[in-house]
Design a protein that fits this description.
Shape: globular
Helix content: 25-40%
Largest sheet: 10 strands, mixed
Radius of gyration: 22 Å
CATH topology of the largest domain: Creatine Kinase, Chain A, domain 2
CATH architecture of the largest domain: 2-Layer Sandwich
Structural class: alpha+beta
Number of helices: 14
Oligomer: single chain
Number of domains: 2
């Protein structure tokens, strides 16, 4: 037998080697039956394989074969290019869709509390040469974090994710409903909503919220609050600040856990930004962020009682504003997400910043002289790929630091400010993304071409669909 794949290519640190030893011991000590080896795909949806425990132990250090064909799928598994004519999206190693290798990160190993003796671990997708696939979005974020570390900084993220809980009435499992995309399930509201942050509304759905909370905590995720939001059954989970990669891993696991647990208990959870329900409000993903270093706990906080942000904080914020349009496809990657950008809606519709104002794209959260002052980007939708959303912030912020960009004056009335609008559609966002020289330099031409191809395909399918609006507008009158 030769040297195991992971060691041969130097894919684990010494710390990960030790963590792998502990994972193997834990699998045996707990008598686990199986382990899910998961990979966050281009859409931030978990794919992977379930391995019998003994097989997992045998491939823990060699990786698990996996199909790169999954990379060509849009959100509903429609191939964005002809499967057997895939030209590699600018990376010839992908031509022909060869098998790749899922390399687990033992630092992410957990036992899933809602399943019997089942472990779970996140992975990165590599070619058989050992090279990371450039379209592996976790790898994209890791590259940006490494570059930021080279500048002397670490990224700290605070996650606030909104979603809808609904009662599952009919999963629509007739074969006629099982196309791709399948017919959406029939659901009903679990509460009346519209009593923002009231204890009574939250208590109405305490049964399922207790299940979600208990399991999320048992997973070891640093849950901070469970909050009642605006719409019927609309809920927000917030987390304590975490290092960048850990935060993205937590977000992708949270979404999967919430959907699985809800379904198991007769509910349907959706992170779709604006569901087509009467009386529904849009859901968002508010991403809090700051920088830290061994010398500075919070690189954004002002150093005096009358300073709102440090120069580092101001330049970083200016970068977020400068590249907000080009990064929209990373923070708001669905057709539906752009229907959230409405004036006076608690979602931004233009590129502006403000101090403690939730109508701004970037909110400065905190106060002058407050050591915890940081930035909150309110543009994201809950369906965003966590790795790409966080990577977009680092790309933008580093450019702001590098070029000492100026964010300009604050917008005290963000919805009335004379500021550039955010993209109004995914179609517009994709073209801005594809035209960005900064994103091409940071993410690479192959990745930009790859994601643009996927999203253009999604847009073309949407444009070809006949909507309910068109049927109402034209069918009778013409």
């Amino acid at each position: 037998m030769g040297t195991p794949f992971i060691r041969r290519h130097g894919l684990w640190s010494a710390e990960q080697q030790e963590q792998a030893d502990r994972v193997a011991a834990q699998v045996e000590e707990l008598g686990l039956r199986q382990v899910r080896i998961s990979w966050g795909d281009q859409h931030g949806i978990l794919r992977g394989k379930t391995l019998e425990a003994g097989h997992f132990l045998s491939v823990l250090r060699t990786g698990k074969d996996f199909q790169t064909a999954t990379l060509i799928f849009d959100t509903t598994n429609n191939p964005a290019v002809p499967p057997f004519a895939a030209d590699g999206f600018g990376d010839p190693r992908l031509t022909g869709l060869p098998d790749g290798v899922l390399v687990p990160d033992p630092a992410t190993f957990r036992v899933l509390p809602w399943l019997d003796k089942t472990g779970w671990v996140l992975s990165n997708l590599h070619y058989r040469s050992g090279e990371v696939v450039p379209f592996d979005t976790r790898g994209v974020l890791q590259t940006q974090l490494d570059r930021l570390a080279g500048d002397g900084w670490s990224f700290v993220a605070g996650i606030e994710l909104e979603f809808y809980l609904t009662k599952l009435d009919d999963p629509r499992l007739a074969f006629e409903s099982c196309g791709y995309p399948p017919d959406p399930p029939t659901v009903s509201a679990v509460s009346h909503g519209f009593q923002y942050l009231t204890e009574n509304r939250g208590d109405e759905i305490a049964g399922i919220l207790d299940v979600l909370r208990d399991n999320v905590v048992e997973l070891g995720l640093p849950l901070a609050t469970v909050e009642d939001e605006w719409g019927p059954g609309q809920t927000e989970f917030t987390f304590e600040p975490m290092p960048g990669l850990q935060a993205a891993d937590a977000a992708i696991l949270l979404r999967s856990a919430v959907k699985q647990l809800s379904r198991r208990h007769g509910y349907h959870a959706t992170f779709m930004s604006r569901p087509a329900f009467p009386n529904a409000f849009s859901s968002g993903w508010h991403l809090h962020q700051s920088l830290s270093s061994p010398e500075v706990e919070n690189g954004f906080a002002g150093s005096s009682a009358d300073e709102l942000l440090s120069d580092t904080g101001r330049h970083w914020m200016a970068g977020l504003l400068e590249h907000a349009k080009a990064c929209s496809v990373l923070s708001t990657p669905t057709v539906n997400g752009y229907k959230r950008y409405r004036p006076d809606s608690f979602a931004p519709d233009r590129i502006a910043w403000a101090e403690e104002n939730r109508g701004a794209l970037v909110r400065v959260a905190g106060a002058r002289g407050d050591a915890n002052t940081h930035l909150e980007n309110r543009a994201g939708e809950p369906a965003a790929n966590p790795y790409l959303y966080l990577a977009s912030q680092i790309v933008s912020g580093r450019d702001g630091l590098r070029n000492k960009l100026d964010p300009g004056p604050s917008a005290d009335e963000p919805y009335r400010a004379e500021a550039e609008p955010l993209p109004s559609s995914l179609q517009e966002a994709v073209e801005l993304f594809a035209a960005s020289s900064v994103l091409r330099a940071e993410l690479g031409d192959p990745f930009v071409e790859y994601l643009s191809t996927l999203k253009r395909h999604e847009v073309s399918r949407f444009n070809a669909a006949v909507t309910d609006w068109e049927q109402r507008e034209y069918f009778e009158v013409y």
